[in-house]
Amino acid sequence: MDRDQGLTDSVAQTLREAPVRTPFSRRVSAHLHRRPRLRLWALLTAPMFWLVVVYLASLAALLVTAFWSTDSFTSEIVRDWNLDNYRLIYESSVYRTIIVRTLAVALGVTAVCTVVAIPFAYYMAKVAGPREQKILVVAALMPLWVSYLIKGFSWRILVGENGVLDNTIGATPGFGTAAVVLTLSYLWLPYMVLPVYAGFERLPDSLLDASGDLGAKPSRTFWSVVLPAIFPSVVAGSIFTFSLSMGDYITVDIVGGSTQMLGNVVFDNQVYDLPFAAAMATVTVAIMVVYLRLVRRTGALENI
Amino acid sequence: MVDDAHPAVELRGLRKRFGEVVAVDGVDLEIVDGEFFSMLGPSGSGKTTVLRMVGGFELPTEGTVLLGGKDVTRLAPFERDVCTVFQDYALFPSMNVRDNVAYGLRVRGTGRVERARQADEALAGVRLAGFGDRKPAELSGGQRQRVALARALVVRPRVLLLDEPLGALDLKLREQMQMELKAIQRDVGITFVFVTHDQEEALTMSDRVAVFDAGRVEQVGTPADLYERPATAFVAGFVGTSNLLEGDAAARLFGDNGTHSVRPEKIQVSRDLSASGEPGEQAVTGTVAEVVYAGASTRFIVDLDTGGRLMALQQNRHSDSSDVAELRGSKVRLSWRRSHGISIGTTAEQPTPGRTPR
Q: What is the CATH number of domain B9-237?
């Protein structure tokens, strides 16, 4: 009886002292719990700052700058509004060729990545055992942990004259557009493999079984059942491969030989003719906007 | 096409190992043409694996699968004259209902107009006329179920495999689908091989049932065979409520100390302890340990004076919940016809705990 009494006393004492001992972090949590608007602000201030100031504002600056021009003598920016930069891009066959080439390279890279990623992701998701699956996911991700430049120069060693390819199989695309497509495909492959892998993971095995069961050979199953199911994932991956290829200029410098892409023009002009570089960059933004609109029309974005 | 000389499906010495685990451990079965055949067993008993080996989705480690007398053991699913209704229905989400149903015909090269006609006909056959243009996502579970059925039936397979197709439906819908499935099977006359863990489902729908446990077939027979004359304690326990008595308790009532069983609904509960037994009747007294009121009926758990425990099931024809509740702790007399006492043999294994039917 006494013991019981003692216990009750100590519990009562703890209860009395409880509010005094509440740690600061607890009080902050409790305070936030009662004020949802404050909580919202605390969560969103940093990301909104990032989105509005860092991203949207700089994009707006880019768009504005493209309508200015440069004093050819001093390289100073002259803030007179005109369309000269765009007119130059439109009228010069060199720039037109570069835009078309950049588009072709971006589409080519996307195509190569798709063709390589689908069987790879299929194997990862549907064939490999759980252990092998983990190893393959890491293998697909590993290239992302290595410096871009190291990967770029590795490809330079691979495709160069007297390089690894030349010495082993006796053939190499050499420096040029083909090497750019190859290298970029290698660089952006993980961005295609991962969404496609996730797409295959979501695809129930029973759909494949059902298709075969109804008499479809594997090729028919692929075109009629698998491809429609993973198409949204391929589109998601293609947004990465396409946009990253559109803006790349370093790989082109490393393995492109004399090839130039949009990114190179932007990079080469940014010091002496920033408005023109901005106009060129706006072209890539415009192409991306068109690409995203096309993608949206396929309805694939709604299923991601 | 139908070859009467051979059973629709014949399994010989079928065995399947996944690594260390033996999922199917020597199964021999013959399934007659036009039969509604169920494979009943707890989860992990190997019934679905057997079904998948018949469908061609798994290669047996050992043994042979014959369809209409032809060895198909190593043929791909698309080379076999069987179709499967999958547990999750496996409808193609990108196609509408009609295209789903017509898929098997499209694969076989049937013309566009003809396959649309046949698909609509098949949809009407499962009471889904007019649903052809909807996407599977817009249908309810029961409707998807019927689309999957129509999709499999439209190609007129020799054997239809159904892998727990009613498992995802709620009770009311499930009972309704059981009736429909049975009616559809009678109409089309195709052999149905139905996998389920629900003993009631197997009993209501099947011509014959194979009871599976631990990768083996425990008993094959008509629903009445399994229920009235279970061959093993496992079957007695899995099909219906077991009510097993063994050892001394069994010896005092049945004369030998093997395993014996009486179905709960065969036992008459009476408060008149001195009633004289009719000829051919067996009677025993005991104390009511528990009374469970279940609406239409009441379950009595009775500790027998001779040892052991039996469950008795009484229809609540003249009693209600307050009447039966008073019986807890009181003495009652249990009686049943001697012929309803089932001897299960002395060597049979007990059903493992946790595998009792739901």
A: 3.40.50.300
Beta carbon pairs, A and B, within 8 Å: 61
Residue A37 burial class via C-beta count within 10 angstroms: exposed 0-12, middle 13-18, buried 19 and up = exposed
Whether residue A206 lies within 8 A of chain B, CB to CB, comes out as yes
The answer to whether B92 contacts A217, with C-beta atoms less than 8 Å apart, is: no
Chain B residues with CB under 8 Å of A204 CB are: 88, 90
- Taking phi over 0 as left and psi of -120 to 50 as alpha, with beta for the rest, A215 belongs to left
Run of H or E residues at B26 = strand B21-31
Closest CA to B56 of A94, A213, A35, A278: A213
Tokens linked to A185: 């495909």
Instruction: Confirm if B28 and B215 have CB atoms less than 8 A apart.
Output: no
Residue ranges of the domains in chain B?
9-237, 259-343
State which residue of chain A sits closest to B76, comparing Cα positions.
A212
Residues of B in contact with A217 (CB under 8 A): 78
User: Touching check for A185 and chain B: CB below 8 Å?
Assistant: no
pLDDT digit string (tens) for A148-205? 999 999 999 988 888 888 888 877 888 889 999 999 999 999 999 999 999 999 999 9
Non-local (6+) Cβ contacts of A172 within 8 A are A158, A159, A160, A161, A163, A165, A166
pTM, two decimals, is: 0.76
Q: Which residue of A has its CA nearest to B54?
A: A213
CATH of domain A87-303: 1.10.3720.10
Q: Hey, are the CB atoms on B86 and A229 less than 8 Å from each other?
A: no
CATH topology for B259-343 is OB fold (Dihydrolipoamide Acetyltransferase, E2P) (2.40.50)
- Chain B CB contacts of A302 under 8 Å are none
Q: Is A225 on the interface with B (CB under 8 A)?
A: yes
Closest residue in chain B to residue A221, using alpha carbons only: B107
Closest to B305 (Cα-Cα) out of B322, B327, B329, B285: B285
Q: Give the residue extent of every domain in chain A.
A: 87-303
pLDDT at B354 over 60: no
Burial of A230 (0-12, 13-18, 19+ CB in 10 A): buried
